Amino acid sequence: MEKIEYDAVVIGGGLAGLMSAHEIASAGFKVAVISKVFPTRSHSAAAEGGIAAYIPGNSDPNDNPDYMTYDTVKGGDYLVDQDAAELLSNKSGEIVMLLERWGALFNRQPDGRVAVRYFGGQTYPRTRFVGDKTGMALLHTLFERTSGLNVDFYNEWFSLDLVTDDKKVVGIVAMQMKTLTPFFFKTKAVVLATGGMGMLYRHTTNSYINTGDGFGIALRAGAALKDPEFVQFHPTALYPSDVLISEAARGEGGILKNVKGERFMTKYAPKKLDLAPRDIVSRAIITEIREGRGFPGGYVGLDLTHLGEEYIKERLALAVEAAKSFAGVDAFTEPIPVRPAQHYYMGGIDVDIDGRNPDIVGLFSAGEAACVSVHGANRLGSNSLLDTLVFGQVTGRTVVQFLKSNPGNPTSNYEKEAEKVVDDAYKFVKSESGVHFGQILEKLRDTMWDYVGIYRDEGGLLNAMCEINKLRGMISNMYVIDKSKVYNTEFFNALELRNMLDLAVVIAKSALERKESRGAHFRTDYPDRDDNNWLKHTIAYLRGNTVEVTFKPVKITRWKPEPRVY
Amino acid sequence: MAQSQEEEVILKVKRFNPERGFWWAEYKLKVDKFTQFTEALRRIKSEQDPTLSYRASCHMAVCGSCGMKINGEPRLACKTLVLDVAKKYNNNVIIIEPMDYFKPIKDLIVDWDEFYERMFKVKPRLYQAKEVLEGKAEHRLKPEDQRELWKFAQCIWCGLCVSACPAVVIDQQFLGPAAHAKGYRFLADPRDTITEERMKILIDSSWRCTYCYQCFNVCPRDIEPVTAIKKTRSFTKLYKDKSEVAEIGERHIEAIHESISKTGKLQEAEVYVKAYGVLQSLIDLVYMSGAGKLKYMLVQSKPVQNIKEIKKILGGE
């Protein structure tokens, strides 16, 4: 197998990965970015509404970073590590202004300064935005910046597995998708910045590429996931195609209405109404639909019509376009049909506040792939872009420190290990007959949606465990019909499915264990939050076919848990 | 919003792999009026034929992965609904092919290397003043400048415009519509510091565009690359080291302006001589007479009557 050597390898070309790579390269180290897509195709491009930031002299005069931390902690239902949330808030202004200087075209106030809008769960408006394509604008800016540095991009390369020696990173095996040639990337530090996993669910706002590859890689290498049961559902995905309608639509004054024309959020969050956090609004919509007040087909209306055409066009162009293109609805004159869909993963690879995984030396993670945790049980809107950049930068800097204090190259007999990674990848798809990935994938997506979704209970979760275990058994029989040696997407889809199943079993098991309701994890059989027993992080390992669940305390600095009412 | 009826369609996909070459595959499936082509392809791949290869990511027209030719038109598969196309062509059989211009790799997947090379040629990043980069100075951006730049910054590198562009095929020195949109976004940014270098990269190329407006027609983000090219041309007067192509182009524009403001009409022969010079015009005259087109060149027409109105429209005098 061909070998190539780097100081550090970043897996993933979205915002978190590029920001890490930027830091590592700027410090003079040799870094590679491996991505299964061209970087601007990453899911970061799909983020819409904005990025939260307290900017001194440019924010609401009453606001300050402490309010921002408080909103984040409360929004996350107190499962947030508060030191991390403080870091996030304190660095928010700086990071937004950095991207501004790099050329990000933020919407402006008349005086030329960066403009601001409201988002769910914010005490004061603090979301900075570029129309409703903020993610795309930031991703392009950062890619433009990073591609001007000394960073080697391996675009359309699929990462298979980490190679470790005595719990230390030795390198990673990746395959060029165009030629199916495996390469061993010898390195001391790997940053997993592989994003989320929406494709596990029947309904998701995520890109097709979000198959949780980083989670699979980490789990198989023996690293833990933190809080894997916390999956966010966004309340307003377009019916029926699940394209995201940004929370900015409600931030700018959009109102949710049921089939009777009632503004139903008055019942569920009398103070914050439509701008309550996502878990609360998602459950409210599902409840309305279940109790017969949804529109036929199962959706509610998001009404923008009172905002005026010009205002909507400038600030919510993508929402209007999506409603028109994908649902045939004119948002200027009629409500947009919406329903909840999977949107974000609060859980992720267990890392500390510096982005370091405690299980494997040299393993780091940032962005949606990581759980620091700043989002706790429920992420506030416009905190995810912020997370990718702040912790992308922090993690990059941690890697730089790590490389400085660990000179010399990893020594290990990696050859055999690397060969085994490739054999394993081929092994589970090398049969001459059996099932193909689609048959398993569609069952998995339905199972997760039905039983590990917005509402959960013990019976459903046991069902899910049973079904997922069956599917995991089936993949040993999986086979690939396409024998082509060029860009064989069927083979890569099968590998993605392996990652998805390794993650699914961990999510279902952790959800079964947590016998309370907190943030996005809602158990109908345990409808209340239980701080006495459950104010703690889940730490889950995958050992063969068993999921090993342990716990870790939540870091609390200044904000004691209080009832979460909006 | 009414509930939606399913209809059966047949997708005829032009497939390719290096061992076998091109062949056609047909897939029958039921779709409703909301089904995007990316979803139709995803279903084919997971339910019927896992060997079908294509690219797709965001399914909401911001990542630019899923460019392909649908019934002959370059489109983003996600931004195109299956039944819309069936209705437009009044035919439930729909033809899907890889984008033109790009080299095919596998089925609908094409090679991007050359496209990316062109994009990177225009130095697609902001070169800020050092003090601003270091945070010692702030460069505020007027809302109207933000709006102007944002229009062109929305290019998602999908390549549809390049696949539709006839000029890029025949002229290696033409950077192509996407690279021009990207280049103009930075050329026009008041915060950028390498304007001179950008003019050197962009101006000659901008005069190689043929103004066919195909890029304007196919761009899924309404960027209007041709508008970026027009606006880039307007920088020519600020640029000293002009190439021959740029000089001819400038003279051509001036001659057109002069002709119209004088006579209200486009006096082709005069414009030609002014743009290309007497010598070149005489040489071309020989070719034209050989081709039997001399009479067109010698047409003389009278000025229009109300020339004052024309001048008003032109904004002069």
TrEMBL record, chain A:
Primary location class: membrane
Subcellular location: Membrane
Name the UniProt record assigns to this protein: succinate dehydrogenase
Keywords tagged on the record: Electron transport, FAD, Flavoprotein, Membrane, Oxidoreductase, Transport
Protein EC: 1.3.5.1
Keyword Oxidoreductase assigned: yes
Domain Fumarate reductase/succinate dehydrogenase flavoprotein-like C-terminal: 442-566
Keyword tRNA-binding included in the entry's annotation: no
A UniProt-annotated Pfam family: Succ_DH_flav_C
Ranges of residues in domain FAD-dependent oxidoreductase 2 FAD-binding: 7-385
A GO molecular function held by the record: electron transfer activity
Similarity annotation: Belongs to the FAD-dependent oxidoreductase 2 family. FRD/SDH subfamily.
Superkingdom: Archaea
GO biological process, one term: electron transport chain
Cofactor dependence: FAD
Automatic annotation (TrEMBL), chain B:
4Fe-4S ferredoxin-type domain: residues covered: 146-175, 199-229
PANTHER family, alphabetized: FUMARATE REDUCTASE IRON-SULFUR SUBUNIT
Top EC class, one word: oxidoreductase
NCBIfam families: dhsB, PRK12576.1
Record's keyword annotation contains Transferase: no
Record Pfam families: Fer2_3, Fer4_8
Subcellular location as annotated: Cell inner membrane; Membrane
EC number: 1.3.5.1
Stated name of the protein: Succinate dehydrogenase iron-sulfur protein
GO MF terms, alphabetically ordered: 2 iron, 2 sulfur cluster binding; 4 iron, 4 sulfur cluster binding; electron transfer activity; metal ion binding; succinate dehydrogenase (quinone) activity
Record field: catalytic activity: a quinone + succinate = fumarate + a quinol
Keyword terms, alphabetized: 2Fe-2S, 4Fe-4S, Cell inner membrane, Cell membrane, Electron transport, Iron, Iron-sulfur, Membrane, Metal-binding, Oxidoreductase, Transport
Topology of the protein relative to the lipid bilayer: Peripheral membrane protein
